[in-house]
Amino acid sequence: MDIKKLSESLNPVERKVLKVLDNFSSFSDIVKVTELKEVEVMRALQWLQNKNIIKIKEEQKEIVYLDENGYNYLKYGLPERRFLEVVKDKAGISDIAKKTGLSNEEVAVSLGALKSKAAIEIIKDSGIIIFITDNGRNLLKRGFIEEQFLKEHFPKELNSLNEEEKFILDNLRKRKKIVKVELVKVISAELTELGEKLIKEKIEEGLLERVIPSLIKTGAWQGKKFRRFDVKINVPSIFGGRKQHYRRFLDEVRQKFVALGFEEMTGPIVETDFWDMDALFMPQFHAARDIHQAYYIKEPKHGKLDEVLVKKVKESHENGYETGSKGWCYEFDAKRTHRHMLRTQTTACSARMLASKDLKIPGKYFAIARNFRYDVVDATHLPDFNQTEGIVVEEGLNFRHLKGLLKMFAEEFAETDQIKITPGYFPFTEPSAELHAKHPELGWIELAGSGIFRPEMVKPLVGREVPVLAWGIGIDRIAMFKLGIKDIRQLFSHDLEFLRNAKVV
User: Fold this and answer.
1) How many structural domains does the chain have?
2) Positive or negative CA dihedral for 21, 24, 29, 33?
3) Are residues 79 and 43 part of one domain?
């Protein structure tokens, strides 16, 4: 855009600000000279910067302000002036305080200040008597340098003060609420090369901003110029409210499961050993529990359980509970199973569903739940994480049905057909399998563990043997696929800049 067109594109506020920029650069001065509101000046500067006419500079500077007492003393005079005016030739200290109305603190400060300037003499004779000196009389005639300082234009930059002014400032800062120095952000505008050329040109005035009916009816628009509007100019980004990117993804996962005919199941975050592990036919002494690295609760240490159900699970561990299995052949600790812990796996929700009176056969269920395990935090691991758990309960189901489900989940939720299903091990499923998918940057990562629940788990909870397909999906990692995230910690980031620009699907 040439200079003429650029000039014609300026709005009234931009033109008003631009005209003063050759003489004034600080934000406060521009506001004062243009008599515009601060928000109007700020917007004008931002628009001018977008057009490469100026550069906005922000600096941290120490600024001197008058404080509460400073304004009072500016109006009524310093305490030492009022003190000295009452003395005339000589006066008692009590009379001075009464006539001036100064506080005890102000009287004490005045005594010290005037004594240091040899303006008074103090004699103790049946009380304290103050005599004015020739220096004091001269001081009243020529005025106090501190008062002259207070009459200057404030706020002032500390660096703009000369040596004498800095000396006066240091003395006033020792006194109560006369001046204060604050570190503030100072905004200023600097003309660019383009801005220098533009300001030398005649800035167009009287440009029409909009067309209204009366303008057309009266023909007043004829012979007038309309302001140009640059539709390509960069404008400040507007960040409207929206759901957090991972929360929105989880909501969509929930909607997809519901659309596939699944019902949602839930469970508490604070679980017992019983539902988190024992009901899943995980032996109490087995090394498989070590990988869960559970957080146990100190208080209350134990929870309440259905003792009839506990007895059935106990028998399943000890002798197989009428399933033809020998179980794990150890003495089950019924007290230990009551221990409170933070849920380590969403399979606890599946166990609760199988034991529920609301269980439907055939039935399909899912859960999106928070779990906790001690872990080293890195790009793919966190000590707290989400899992999507699911079960399908129906007669006649087999491993072929499970493979089909896993393939569908990878395509539906991770949007990838690069998958592989490998053998796995879980104490509560047989057979067991793991689902892996290839991430474009992280390579092959595990997405889900799955299998068919063992009869030793199902029969004590359901009351009969029935095939149950089960899987637990690491939904955090699937979200990384969908949202294009390399670091799992970004799913829960508090970084406002990242959240504003995060991909939302």
Assistant:
1) 3
2) negative
3) no
